[in-house]
Amino acid sequence: MDRRIQIFLNKISLASTAIATLILLLLYLRTPATCVHIASAHLKPHHSFPKSTCGFSARPYTSVDKRNRRLWSTAAWIRTVRSYADLFRILRDKRLFSVQSRALVISAGPGHAVKALHDLGLSDATGIELVESPPLVSRADPLNLPFFDGAFDFVFSAYLDRALYPARYAGEMERVVRDGGACVVAVEECGEGEIESVAKLFRKSKLLGAMNVTLGGERRTRIVLRVRNGHGCSKMAYGSSEQRRWLQAQ
């Protein structure tokens, strides 16, 4: 009796295994209902697309250079780079940096600001972001910059107001700027009270001035600060001649 039961159970096990294998095979061969079939009648003859959005055939590799050429030729890219170039040109004319300066762009995104600095003649302009975008932007953490103290003459960020820890973000900006260098940030368009709040994040810097600008189609407030870390230079007092010149020029 026990032998018959054992044989019966073995047959059930084999049948279950066969059914499960068949179901998996059908699922593998069948196109999921969530896939969208592409009508071949609307495709150009030289375009090779998979039969559905679930196609897993090999896709052609696009080199970084080719991808960048496509990106940099778009109207949106050109317009955004020009807006940054206009901003930096004013700062250059105010002698916040020169073509010999070492510049850093934090939270650089795809590299609009870095490209604008290069176009103005700065060969030593570095961009960093959590996700790299070569050759303009390298990967690094804005809250833990991989640079020595005072490594740069000029540091810029357009996204301080979107940082998770703004005070630490500002502190890292100050740390990597040499004494007498400049920190420039662009935040969401704001008034005098908000500008002072942003300036207070930079404990080793003095506010030079602020101005509303347009960057990449967004209205932003540009805030300029002079870094004074106390190593060999006197602290710039509020109302100094440099600050008055900036305020009069706004």
Automatic annotation (TrEMBL):
<dbReference type="InterPro" id="IPR029063">
    <property type="entry name" value="SAM-dependent_MTases_sf"/>
</dbReference>
<feature type="transmembrane region" description="Helical">
    <location>
        <begin position="12"/>
        <end position="29"/>
    </location>
</feature>
<protein>
    <recommendedName>
        <fullName>Methyltransferase type 11 domain-containing protein</fullName>
    </recommendedName>
</protein>
<keyword id="KW-1133">Transmembrane helix</keyword>
<dbReference type="InterPro" id="IPR013216">
    <property type="entry name" value="Methyltransf_11"/>
</dbReference>
<dbReference type="Pfam" id="PF08241">
    <property type="entry name" value="Methyltransf_11"/>
</dbReference>
<dbReference type="GO" id="GO:0009820">
    <property type="term" value="P:alkaloid metabolic process"/>
</dbReference>
<keyword id="KW-0812">Transmembrane</keyword>
<keyword id="KW-0472">Membrane</keyword>
<feature type="domain" description="Methyltransferase type 11">
    <location>
        <begin position="106"/>
        <end position="185"/>
    </location>
</feature>
<dbReference type="GO" id="GO:0008757">
    <property type="term" value="F:S-adenosylmethionine-dependent methyltransferase activity"/>
</dbReference>
